[in-house]
Amino acid sequence: MGPAPAEIDVFSRPHSRIKRLVNNYSQKLSATDFSNYSSLKSFLNSLKLTFKEFKTHENIENEFIMEKLKIRLDYHKSVCTATLQRPSINPF
Fold this sequence. Notes:
0% strand, rod-shaped, 2 helices, 75% helix, Putative F-box/LRR-repeat protein 5
């Protein structure tokens, strides 16, 4: 079995982007004047775009990242199984 594939950080950048979106949305929520139609409409449009980006993020994660994690898990399982099944050498 060859060496483990190089680790690729597929989490930090996308998840930091989602955290920023949540923080921005929280700030907009606090600053929105819900009695003003214009302000409310702007907030709802922003919310719609945020949820659209969340959905895109989840689709990408499910389609690409989860497959990479499954491959990595399968690789580590096979390495562990091979290691555990190796006969031990005991001179005594």
